[in-house]
Write a structure and sequence with these properties.
Keywords: Membrane, Transmembrane, Transmembrane helix. The protein has 1 helix and no strands. By secondary structure, the chain is an all-alpha fold.
Length: 51
């Protein structure tokens, strides 16, 4: 194994982990946004129907 390959391997690993974390965060925020929208819609419907 060359010195260059040994040095870039951790960088590739970190980059892959960072991309995976970013994808997970984006997916998590999308789910949270959907849940918040559903809760908001349910609250508006409940308040509107009760009023």
């Amino acid at each position: 194994m060359s010195w260059g390959a040994r040095r870039t391997a951790p960088v590739q690993l970190l980059r892959g982990t960072g991309l995976r974390l970013a994808a997970n965060a984006r997916h998590g925020y999308a789910v949270l946004g959907l849940v918040a929208w559903l809760v908001g819609a349910a609250a508006v419907t409940t308040l509107g129907g009760g009023a």
